Amino acid sequence: MEFLEVVQKRRSIRAFKTNPIEPAKLKAILNAINLSPSAGNLQAYEVYQVNQPQVKSALAQAAFMQTFIVDAPVILIFCANPYRSADRYGERGIQLYSVQDATIACTVAHLAVTDQGLGSVWIGAFDPGAVRKAASIPDSLLPVAILPIGYPAENPPRRSRRSLKDLIHLVEA
């Protein structure tokens, strides 16, 4: 697919088929994550891959009972690694750049999922401590997004977007 076609086809998928994800498709998504831009190319994020049903159930509870999560064959948890960028960027690296790095990686994954003919939804509503506990994530990392991935069992319509006139603001001197 061409990039803009991927962006146009992406939807938030909350219903998944039971079909497993082919290893080549998953590897393509993981490689895309690794190629994501990051501050200073430090890749101040970690990604946890979840396949086990009991961990998926715990994640669904940590995400305030978003039970559709358990149906996704694979779940990726994107975590900021604040201290990976601390030496170079200090407090700004800890507070901002590591979070940006993790969210950029999740965005790239979200689009790569679509490119592979799969579906996903960005989940940001969750208890970070419960996510850490469910997936055995160290306290030094900050979970910032959960991305369930699988073959879509739904085809939601494109939702309306703001007009460019409302969204884009031209700055003139």
Biggest sheet, strands in spatial order?
1-2-4-3
Sheet-strand content, in percent, reads 5-15%
Q: What is the rounded distance between the termini?
A: 39 Å
Overall spatial form: globular
User: Can you identify the CATH class?
Assistant: Alpha Beta
Poorly predicted residue ranges: none
Helix percent band: 40-55%
Would you identify the CATH H-level superfamily? NADH Oxidase
CATH architecture: 3-Layer(aba) Sandwich
Explain how this protein is built.
It is a single chain. With 173 residues, the protein is an alpha+beta fold. It has a single domain (3-154), classed as 3-Layer(aba) Sandwich (NADH Oxidase). 41% of the residues lie in helices and 14% in strands. It is built from six helices and four strands. Helix 2 (23-34) runs antiparallel to helix 4 (86-115). It is globular, with a radius of gyration of 17 Å. The mean pLDDT is 97.
